[in-house]
Amino acid sequence: MSKKRIAILGSTGSIGTQALDVIEAYPEIFSVGVLTAQNNADLLIEQAVKFLPKVVVIGNESFYDKVSAALSSFPIKVYGGNSALVSVVESDSIDIVLTAMVGYAGLLPTIHAIKAGKNIALANKETLVVAGELITNLAKENNVSIYPVDSEHSAIFQCLTGEGNNPIEKIILTASGGPFRGKESSFLASVTKQQALKHPNWSMGAKITIDSATLMNKGLEVIEAKWLFDLSASQIDVIVHPQSIIHSMVQFEDGSIKAQMGLPDMKLPIQYALHYPYRLKSSFPRFDFAAYPSLTFEKPDLETFRNLAIAYQALEKRGNAACIVNAANEIAVEAFLQDRIGFLEISDVIIESIAKIGYVENPTYLDYVNTNEATRRFALEMIQVKV
Ligand code: NDP
Ligand code: MG
């Protein structure tokens, strides 16, 4: 069998580096075709020297000379600027694209990869949140598979394996509850980014860690699940499960529930997505039932953690509503990380953006671009007035 050649968009991040660990562990199965990063030129160079991809892209063009000089003696093409991402994903020398960059920036390269017939291992959930309908239609038209990397969606995907056309009654997405589980608004009003960045169970990039603390991550995952598994909002439940051992569940029409379990480790869903339908023998630590005498479950608090309720509303509203939510959230999270707004103001920025930005019922790609830009501008102005 020839090796699967992988393009990793965002190879220097949390998902990107873990994907390279997986590739390194199975050199007879995987090879690296493309690596990309935004600013972390040093790590990108180190990865390129080790994995020898055909192409690397550094998004921030001011690092192009540095990367290009460091790799000049290797048979590696170097590009600067994110516009190169859309062509590198179309290359004949790759088989699958792992979208491991953060945020809206994932949308356009994913569209190009699908149009070029590349299967997608999707970590970048924002792409499906912003334009789920467009992406899933494109994937169907181009006969492309989208394999989920997000642990909850991988769990559901694994539970569905072997079920043929058996309809899903509902899915149950599990949520850790984040570092502020059980806290009230009066407490959340003054939490710092240092507190918010301390996730109890997972070590991830800054944006998704804040999203986990506000429960926006679960909201984005509800929307992601809608598009991946063709469900209605009422078929998607969220339950808080602080131990993060059950990664999500599917309930079928006979009432039977299947769960996928294991210790939290993103390498498992990454390798399942990259090598589907095969499972790879791993040495990851195994779950021990005796070490966890109680797995607990509780309802999410949608009044305190407003972002989860906002995401459900955007899903019901369809059109460009989730695109507005995503853009406002990206700006608000960035502002929170810069100590420019408080934790609770993240939801305020999103709610005001939804009220302000025009609704488009059947958005085209250009409508998404315009909605994203208009929302970012509005959210930034709002934050400037506040501080
Ligand atoms: P990180 O912040 O750790 O990494 C992001 C990666 O994307 C880096 O390689 C970064 O480059 C690159 N990047 C940043 N901005 C841009 C841009 N504008 N254009 C292109 N590339 C960019 O994020 P994570 O790995 O945590 O998350 C990546 C995606 O996976 C997110 O969508 C997240 O929601 C999703 N995900 C992550 C999980 C996790 O465990 N981390 C779990 C489930 C989903 P540089 O390093 O140079 O800045
Ligand atoms: Mg997840």
Automatic annotation (TrEMBL):
Cofactor(s) essential for the protein: Mg(2+); Mn(2+)
Pathway: Isoprenoid biosynthesis; isopentenyl diphosphate biosynthesis via DXP pathway; isopentenyl diphosphate from 1-deoxy-D-xylulose 5-phosphate: step 1/6
GO MF term set: 1-deoxy-D-xylulose-5-phosphate reductoisomerase activity; isomerase activity; manganese ion binding; NADPH binding
Domain (1-deoxy-D-xylulose 5-phosphate reductoisomerase C-terminal) ranges: 146-229
UniProt: 1-deoxy-D-xylulose 5-phosphate binding residues: 125, 151-152, 176, 199, 212, 217-218, 221
Binding site for Mn(2+): 150, 152, 221
Short name of any one Pfam family annotated for the protein: DXPR_C
Homology family: Belongs to the DXR family.
Job description of the protein: Catalyzes the NADPH-dependent rearrangement and reduction of 1-deoxy-D-xylulose-5-phosphate (DXP) to 2-C-methyl-D-erythritol 4-phosphate (MEP).
PANTHER family documented for this protein: 1-DEOXY-D-XYLULOSE 5-PHOSPHATE REDUCTOISOMERASE (PTHR30525), 1-DEOXY-D-XYLULOSE 5-PHOSPHATE REDUCTOISOMERASE, CHLOROPLASTIC (PTHR30525:SF0)
UniProt-recorded name of the protein: 1-deoxy-D-xylulose 5-phosphate reductoisomerase
Annotated source species: Dyadobacter frigoris
